[in-house]
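Z., the sequence and structure:
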Amino acid sequence: MTPIALTIAGSDSSGGAGIQADLKTFAALGVYGASAITALTAQNTTGVSGIHQVPAEFLTAQIDAVFSDLAVGAVKIGMVAQPASIDAIVAGLTRWSPNHVVLDPVMVATSGDRLLATEAVEALRTRLIPLASVITPNLPEAAALLDEPMATDEAAVENQGRRLLAMGCRAVLIKGGHGQGAESTDYLIDANATITLAAPRIATKNTHGTGCSLSSAIAAGLAKGDSLETAVRNAKAWISAAIAAADRFSVGRGHGPVHHFHGYY
């Protein structure tokens, strides 16, 4: 069987994040990628200059077209943008019941531009998170989902992870890229344990699309039949290498992309 993953997310016109990053990640990891686009962004490495929402009924049509024909092994969800998109995604996931759903609760772009409407946050919390196999917030996103300050130590991170878990998802991966120190430490939390995943912190401004790519790498592993822990460990190693290789590129004047195909050139 060909492993297939579906990304439901926004399009990044500069190619470094969103749908484009997701499909590059799937391809780099040997998974066939399909997509359902929630929004078009006019975006480059310096910021987002416009967002055009895809109508909810057309998002539904994309999801149904993919699931009705392709054997989707895992779904990655990124930028959902608006409440109507969340409604369409929730209905689609309920209708098609995929085995694995990786939800990256994208709220703000690397450039600082907001990508999730304020009125959509509650729908994300109450309707989409309960359907997820794993959610992958970074430290600021975890804090925003809980309406509290960003965690600054391991105990606080685990406490926030446990409360996010109580929202109904099966696991939480809190990413430590926004933290301090020589290592970037992620925490994978489920009902039974907390697993700590550390990697050297890499000094580069080229981190555009990091979160999108990590969550897609996890979905790729799940589509290939890996356990969640194995998928997360492999994705962490892969994204760390992609960040380390990012400065081989000279793309744009702002936060450039990671190197998705670092294993090939």
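The mean pLDDT is 93. Helices lie at 18-28, 56-67, 83-96, 121-128, 139-146, 154-165, 210-223, 228-244.

Let me know what you think.
H.
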